[in-house]
Amino acid sequence: MSSNDGDIVIRAEGLVKSFKGFRAVDGLDLTIERGMIYGFLGPNGCGKTTAMRMLTGLLTPTEGTVEVLGLSVPKDAETLKYKIGYMTQAFSLYGDLTVLENLNFMATIYGLPSKRKKQRIAEVMERYELSELGDRFAGKMSGGQRQRLALATAVLHEPQLLFLDEPTSAVDPESRRHFWEQLFDLVDGGTSIVVTTHFMDEAERCHKIAIMEAGQKRADGAPKDLMAAMGANVVEIEGPNLREIRRRLLGTEGIITAAQLGARLRVLVRNDIADPEAFLKNKDETNGATLIEKVRPNLEDVFVTATGEGRQ
Hints:
Blueprint: E1 8-19, E2 22-33, E3 37-41, H1 48-55, E4 63-68, E5 71-73, H2 77-80, E6 84-87, H3 99-109, H4 114-127, H5 143-154, E7 161-165, H6 173-188, E8 192-197, H7 200-205, E9 208-213, E10 216-221, H8 223-228, E11 232-238, H9 242-249, E12 255-261, E13 264-270, H10 276-281, E14 291-295, H11 299-306, H12 308-311
Parallel strand pairs: 3-8, 3-9, 6-7, 7-8
Antiparallel strand pairs: 1-2, 1-4, 4-5, 9-10, 11-13, 11-14, 12-13
């Protein structure tokens, strides 16, 4: 990596991973900058975890090249593992070891000197609210406690780059929110983070995201930029017969998709239609609607327009 690429932590070109002819990741190009949270957003099976495993050096690409922190992967994977942290989707620590024993074991694996090991374990136990849980067996902890322990072990050796695979899939909303605040603290301290998620609200917290579908990147950029460029306007409809209005609207000219959210129908209208509110008000299909108004797009709207549902 040339010297002017110092702000790039990951560069991948033409990344492919095939399993018995099935392309789990299909031609992925990525440039991820230092000091940001970069998210892979997509449903289960879209290739997020496979891509992450190639970026960490755990999987060898079928095709393409990867550079992480200036190192060629998987060739330099052994050197790289001391510079990165990786938190897997499933809890992967030892359930029959205590919190303290797990941290000690991982610190030894990472080769922390004795004095530094003690210091870092004390720091992460305090930071991630584990100080009172040192003697608790990991297998007896709640989802939120396990999550905090997994993060503590992943950052024990102060990695420059942290990989988190669906880190909040097994915790409650309050724990999720708290976890994300901790991620921003890490970024503030100089860590770059790559995270996979299928939660739209989490993806909106990322500085940049890649929307994945069927092993391919359908879109990438800052969430607000993707919302601005998504090629659709969002209009919400209220009325007594929303299921009927939705059924009649789907498949009509100018309508990308329609989905009910509570007492409203959320309709994506192609953005070449100059006045989407008037367009819907004038359609026979919306007879009976009591309110039709244009609203701000969200990341779910971007996801729909970028993936199969909106591109058919």
